[in-house]
TrEMBL record:
<dbReference type="Pfam" id="PF25601">
    <property type="entry name" value="AAA_lid_14"/>
</dbReference>
<feature type="region of interest" description="Disordered">
    <location>
        <begin position="122"/>
        <end position="146"/>
    </location>
</feature>
<keyword id="KW-0804">Transcription</keyword>
<dbReference type="InterPro" id="IPR011006">
    <property type="entry name" value="CheY-like_superfamily"/>
</dbReference>
<dbReference type="InterPro" id="IPR001789">
    <property type="entry name" value="Sig_transdc_resp-reg_receiver"/>
</dbReference>
<dbReference type="InterPro" id="IPR009057">
    <property type="entry name" value="Homeodomain-like_sf"/>
</dbReference>
<dbReference type="Pfam" id="PF02954">
    <property type="entry name" value="HTH_8"/>
</dbReference>
<dbReference type="Pfam" id="PF00072">
    <property type="entry name" value="Response_reg"/>
</dbReference>
<dbReference type="Pfam" id="PF00158">
    <property type="entry name" value="Sigma54_activat"/>
</dbReference>
<keyword id="KW-0067">ATP-binding</keyword>
<dbReference type="InterPro" id="IPR025944">
    <property type="entry name" value="Sigma_54_int_dom_CS"/>
</dbReference>
<protein>
    <submittedName>
        <fullName>Sigma-54 dependent transcriptional regulator</fullName>
    </submittedName>
</protein>
<feature type="domain" description="Response regulatory">
    <location>
        <begin position="4"/>
        <end position="120"/>
    </location>
</feature>
<dbReference type="InterPro" id="IPR002197">
    <property type="entry name" value="HTH_Fis"/>
</dbReference>
<dbReference type="InterPro" id="IPR002078">
    <property type="entry name" value="Sigma_54_int"/>
</dbReference>
<keyword id="KW-0902">Two-component regulatory system</keyword>
<dbReference type="InterPro" id="IPR058031">
    <property type="entry name" value="AAA_lid_NorR"/>
</dbReference>
């Protein structure tokens, strides 16, 4: 008997299109126009997979997902959330609530051909997750819909409720601490403390006391007892930033603390701690292990769940949403980007990554006197070559290098033609429709122009 797929969407055309594609792939298709119809269908049919719209008038997809996974028979049918409005908040929440995947419309036949077999193979009983706050109350901190950022959001949703150690890697300024704070905030330890410690900013002779604490009189100047970051973060999360800059002697002590969940204050006795560790570094720790600069056993202890944050130049689709977000935060009333300003931002290489972009938008909010930001307001963005392949982690990856070059050429052509796509296409020697598709891919969309 063929597997049965339930399609839930309040738009008839989308339901019909998906059901036709599902049947073409050899599956049985059931349809529901609302959340209540979906729950009724699930109660009376044996389902093998569910394609579930996020936004519906009577009951949203996350509510339906929660009820499906709380069914009395304890069976969790795999559910893929589909939406035209993907955000970090609903992506993370969907994955934490047990969604198999979170997809952005439109969903094509090839997408279904890849997705449905994996969903049907994965069906297994799971315990229902704990309740979450409403999505409306979820702070939107992980802005971005590029493939790289979407994978980061999904991983956060999957790992948040566990105590697994997470290692976040990426260039300086990519937002590693934002990811760490999000893991803590949405996870099971969200009500506990979050402690952040920059291992590179503390002298080696003071780092042990900062991490593990000390007792009164343990050394000259220790006039009071200090708990240290591990004990301050008890029942919560300890974020160890730039852990790759820690010396080998301290690495050994950190390894013991991670293995045994026991810390020894300077001059004191061992004490147990209950803390989740999230570490981050801009270093290539695997290379440092080979060079003897980082302990191999500590690397594997930290690298339980790796999360890689791509540099901003490699996720160009996120540049303009981030810029608009930071501009809205920094200006009141909110300033808007002109076409030329948007193209200037999208064409910049952002060596300082998201941190540089945020600083740029804060500067514009203060210095630009108009409600519309023109390209001339971004004159301080000095063109700079992208880091070489060894530095940015491409390892000579040709497709990535070609994409960056293509995006820069298109942005330059659009800026020189003042947003006239026909003229830009002529300058580039390509068809206008191809330019339109490439501009959409790289986030070089239309924006308001200055008066």
């Amino acid at each position: 008997m063929n597997a049965t797929v339930l399609i839930v969407d309040d738009e008839k055309n989308l339901r019909d299109g998906l059901s036709e594609a599902v049947r073409d792939l050899g599956y049985e298709a059931l349809v529901a126009a609302s959340g209540r119809e979906a729950l009724a269908a699930a109660a009376t049919n044996k389902l093998d997979a569910v394609l579930l719209d996020l936004r519906m008038p009577d009951m949203d997809g996350l509510q339906v997902l929660t009820r499906l996974h709380a069914a009395a028979d304890g069976t969790n049918v795999p559910v893929a959330i589909i939406t035209a409005y993907a955000t970090a908040a609903n992506t993370i929440e969907a994955m934490r609530l047990g969604a198999f995947d979170h997809l952005t419309k439109p969903i094509g036949r090839e997408d279904l051909a890849s997705l449905l077999p994996r969903m049907i193979r994965s069906r297994a009983p799971k315990s229902p997750p704990r309740d979450l706050p409403d999505a409306d109350g979820f702070p939107e901190t992980l802005i971005g819909s590029s493939p790289g950022m979407r994978e980061v959001q999904k991983t956060i949703g999957l790992v948040a409720d566990s105590d697994a150690t997470v290692l976040i890697t990426g260039e300086t300024g990519t937002g590693k601490e934002v990811v760490a704070r999000t893991i803590h905030r949405v996870g099971a330890r969200g009500n506990g403390p979050f402690m952040a410690l920059n291992c590179a900013a503390i002298p080696p002779d003071l780092l042990e006391s900062e991490l593990f604490g000390h007792v009164k009189g343990a050394f000259t100047g220790a006039i009071i007892e200090r708990k240290g970051a591990f004990r301050e973060a008890d029942s919560g999360t300890l974020f160890l930033d730039e852990i790759g800059d820690m010396d080998l002697a301290m690495q050994a002590k950190i390894l013991r603390a991670l293995q045994e969940r026991v810390v020894t204050p300077v001059g004191g006795k061992p004490q147990k701690v209950d803390v989740r560790i999230v570490a981050a570094t801009h270093r290539d720790l695997e290379q440092w292990v080979k060079q003897g600069r980082f302990r191999e056993d500590l690397f594997y202890r930290l690298n339980v769940v790796p999360i890689e944050l791509k540099p901003l130049r490699e996720r160009t689709a996120d540049i303009l949403p981030l810029a608009e977000h930071f501009l809205a935060m920094a200006s009141s009333p909110t300033k808007q980007l002109s076409d030329e300003a948007a193209q200037r931002l999208a064409g910049h290489t952002w060596p300082g990554n998201v941190r540089e972009l945020r600083n740029a938008m804060e500067r514009v909010a203060v210095m630009c006197r108009s409600d519309i930001v023109a390209a001339s307001d971004l004159g301080f963005l000095v063109a700079s070559p992208a880091p070489n392949a060894e530095e940015d982690g491409d390892d000579g990856n040709l497709p990535s290098a070609l994409e960056r070059l293509e995006r820069r050429l298109i942005a330059d052509a659009l800026a020189e033609s003042k947003g006239n796509r026909a003229e830009a296409a002529r300058r580039l020697g390509i068809h206008r429709q191809l330019l339109h598709a490439k501009a959409e891919k790289y986030g070089l969309g239309k924006r308001k122009n200055p008066d």
